[in-house]
Amino acid sequence: MAITSSAKKAARSSAKKRVFNLRRKNTLIDTTKAFTKAIAAKDVSGAEKLVSATYAAIDKAAKRGVIKSNTADRKKARIAAALKRVKA
């Protein structure tokens, strides 16, 4: 348990940030899963609609430090490759 006032404030701040980070991470996971399901079902039009939402979720997570930038780049590359495979 935090003793000093600054440590108490840091704990409150950390708790607030945790909520936002969890929300961002859950959005990232949900959009990625939806895209993956569309790819598995070979739903090209549905997958194309989900690409921008998935990219946005990945970029937001990377921007705030929920995931690292190289991880974000790798995820986006794999999404693009998966969409390309389904289109072909």
Entry summary:
The chain has 88 residues and is mainly α.
Could you describe the 3D structure shown?
This protein has a domain at 44-88. Helix 1 packs antiparallel against helix 2 (44-63) and helix 2 (44-63) packs antiparallel against helix 3 (69-87). The longest helix is centred in the first third of the chain and has 36 residues, at 5-40. It is elongated and about 60 Å long. It has helices spanning 5-40, 44-63, 69-87. Helices cover 85% and strands 0% of the residues. By secondary structure, it is mostly helical. The model has no long low-confidence stretch (mean pLDDT 95). It contains three helices and no strands.
- Broad structural category: mainly alpha
Major sheet details: none
Please give the alpha-carbon distance between the first and last residues.
Answer: 57 Å
Gyration radius from CA atoms, angstroms = 17 Å
The proportion of residues in beta strands is under 5%
The average pLDDT is 95
In the predicted model, the low-confidence regions spanning at least 5 consecutive residues are none
The coarse overall form would be: elongated
Number of strands: 0
What is the number of helices? 3
What labels describe this entry?
0% strand, 3 helices, elongated, mainly alpha, 88 residues
Topology, pairings included?
Layout: H1 5-40, H2 44-63, H3 69-87
Helix pairs in contact: 1-2, 2-3
